[in-house]
Amino acid sequence: MLYTVVKANNYQDSISLMLLTNAINALPGVDRSSIMMGTEANKNIFENAGMLTQEAKMANPNDMVIVIDAESGDTVDEVLAEVDKFINQLSVKKEGKNVEHATNWSKAMEMMPDANLAVFSIPGEYAAEEIDKALDLGLNVFSFSDNIPLEDEVALKNKAKEKGLLLMGPDCGTGMISSIPIAFTNIIRPGNIGIAAASGTGIQEVATMIDRLGGGIVHAIGTGGRDLNEAVGGISMKDAILALENHDPTDVIVVISKPPSKWVRDEVVELLQSISKPVVAIFLGEKPEHHIGKVHLAYTLEEAARMAYDLSVGKPVQKNYTDQSVEHTGSKLQENQVIKGLYSGGTLAAEAAMLISEALELGGLTKGEGFLLKAGGHEVLDLGDDMYTQGKPHPMIDPEVRIHKIKEYASLEDTGVILLDVVLGYGAHPDMAGTLAPVISTSLEKAKELSRDLYFVASICGTRNDPQGYDEAVQTLKSAGAIVCESNAEAVKTALSLKGIVLKVTERTTVPYGGPTKQLSAPSEAVMDLINSKPRIINIGVESFNDSVISNGATAIQFDWKPAAGGNKKLIKILNKLNQISWINDENMKVVELMKNGQPFLVDVIPARSEIEVLNQKVLLHAGPPIVYKDMTGPMQGSCIGAVLFEGWADSEQDAVAMLERGEVKFVPCHHVNAVGPMGGITSGSMPVLKIINRLDNTVAYCTMNEGIGKVLRFGAYSDEVIQRLKWMRDTLGPVLSKALQTSETGVNLNVIVAKAITMGDEFHQRNIAASLNFLKEVTPMILKADLSNSEKTEVIEFLAATDQFFLNIMMAIGKSVVDCARKHTQGTIVTTMTRNGREFGIRISGMGDTWFTAPVNTPNGLYFTGYSSEDANPDIGDSAITETIGVGAMAMIAAPGVTRFVGAGGFEDALKVSNEMDEICVANNPNYAIPTWDFKGASLGIDIRKVVETGITPLINTGIAHKKAGIGQVGAGTVRAPLACFEKALEAYAHHLGIEVVDHERD
Predict the structure, then answer these.
(1) Sorting pLDDT into bands at 50, 70 and 90, what band is 612?
(2) Are residues 704 and 605 in the same domain?
(3) What is the pLDDT of residues 727-744, one digit of tens each?
(4) Do 344 and 213 fall within a single domain?
(5) N or C end of the chain: smaller count of CB under 10 Å?
(6) Which of these, 635, 672, 638, lies nearest to 876 by C-alpha position?
(7) CA-to-CA distance for 43 and 49, rounded, in angstroms?
(8) What does the DSSP assignment read for 861-912?
(9) What is the pLDDT of residues 531-563, one digit of tens each?
């Protein structure tokens, strides 16, 4: 039975997940499992394996999908425990490494401004867009990532060429820059030979042989296997050759290529004939009869290595290199017995297939289903082919597929020789020889019992400095009964000799080159900087690729990449197009500057209807985007009932409900009339409201005053106690504060209070005690100076002193005055409103004016008062998210670590994590709100919808939790996330507004 677990927003690289899958498959009770990210490509792999469950179908690309085939559900718990253990161990390993981490390009470039190489090992379906960004940042690129469409490769390489950058790859598995190994690479001694190769294991075979001969490599520049394809035209190969020609420490150049396009090959040869340095070239599949001009043509990778070594030490190239001793000569096998090759290296497999086919006259290479040769019973398999690696580790990492194939082929009566390669080095299995040895020895024993001839012939691609140990690997395989050869070519010759076949190679001499030559152009400064220094690397993807770089003395930082926009390709394309419009950033900064420069002053407390004209009718204001009474949740409906009773429009709860249900009361969002309201946000004409003027441009904003704690209207309570308090606020609190404020010519400068209070531990949503006391300090002398009775003064001062959250409503009006000023600049992607009505969360953005973008609101997580639980919670509600809109509240959680436990966030480290995360989705920081616990960094400011959609990080909001039933009131406090869909809708709408249209092919 299939069981599925989806771990949302838990991105891990594919190699880690492949290794984890293997570990899970080894658990008792697990018939099979597959653990991959929820990309469309991976869903196809799940489907092909018969494991695409409904839950897996619904997963996003940033979700880890675990599908287990097991008889019992109890096994799932064991699997999940193992998964958690594995992920935790990865986390510990990351913490133990001295590598800095970035989560976006801006941060990565800030951390390493002199970076000159980006190394990619992310899923190919997303790689092209990210490589494009790296090129725009002036970085050379090494792309281990494969499955990039050919047309994208062509476009990217042309762009790299135009920018004077080198693009190595896609599907570039191996490289060395200034003797620094990159990706799947061996430990090679430094030297004077430079390699340019459209082949990963081709580089490894040639480089390791040169090392064992006593030579060394300075550069091994991979180009990707398709670079010499007719469509690509050898762009990277030509640039690599020119770079090596101009690199003084390089004395010999080696060119390695899989079978190339003829005209591209001819162009490459023309270039090689034009340079000054000696060249060795091997075009796999060709059997050269002579060397041509300056180019020494090799038949096998072994020949290429030996030629290059001889040239590097000043020796002439020999006429042939085929006189190396072969351990077995003469036929040892029956006539009907055949050779089977089971390779982990694609180039090594191709070389073996070519040599066997030619020696036995089998008609050339075969292609399809992983076979490079399938003729006359002889077979050579590339087990690194996509058909074997989809959703599984490469055979250089994991021996499972090859072990299965060894057992399968060893049991066949016609199998006489099994050819194997063992690749050592960084990224490869820690002891592949030791893992293969038992199956080799067992297979030989079984063949002996059956009186059947069977030979294993192996070559080891590695050096004596590789972590696995070359000599140890040789001895391990020999002890298991295998014949171990110095090279892949020698192994093939040995296999053929067991069939009584001698591979003959014609002696080669040099003939003149009679073709054209090229006028050489100088490489760019960026390319020469790369090859004249140790690379400075931003590693995007598999973190273990840093190991070889760091341990060999170069520098790297880790870009913790995950698919932008949750992997939504339409949104990714929109983001890329918007990010290419430079003026958007300028416009965003204009909006942010208006926010920074706001000058809010509290100037009066007035009856709402005196300035909000619509309230002179039977109208109530409410929080959030537009909503009608029947759609309101319990607490907002309760607030409406209370307001109707307060205004005297009805004499009883029943009459109030009937009036509301008949539609006799109209509703308008607070935000539509320069107002904001906490929780339900219900504001009626007789309620006193704070009047704040932003003196930057005289924008006015209003908000009701804080009622204190307990049963209050804003949380939906409407008992007589609530109504009486509202009447006292109307008749006493409002008029007293109004008269007090009239004693000041300017009113209360609120920026001063906010700046002080944020240094005292307020974040202005859950914690306002410092600001409330500072406000009390400012307003008390005004109250005492006003022409009021002592009892009025005493009542108001005592209320203010007892109401720790009084400043929250002031802060909300500050936020409204600031954003409404900034909203007058109608360009850019900055969020200018966030609010919620209990049903929908709504945002507005600078570039789309008054348009609302809404999505279903989330329910807060947090702590509950005694007797209540999450079952009682109403979905999030209120205009108070205006605080987060201007960068305080949960955005500035680090300012108030004391409140984090109350809202369920944890402690100081969690508060720091929250503010750092919120900083990632903002474009600036507000120096007016400097936070001591954040090293006096200003509060984050300017939420950018592009950053939200790209990262998937949505604003966190501190909030109170109302009971879902009307009349009960507050039952807890916590945090809630804004729904991502609001920001996605805003992004698409803004793109459309600018004339950007992107077709969603996934939905067509």
Answers:
(1) very high
(2) yes
(3) 999 999 999 999 999 999
(4) no
(5) C
(6) 635
(7) 10
(8) EEEE-TT--GGGBPPPEESTTHHHHTT-GGGGGGG-GGGTTTTT--SHHHHH
(9) 999 999 999 998 889 999 999 999 999 999 988
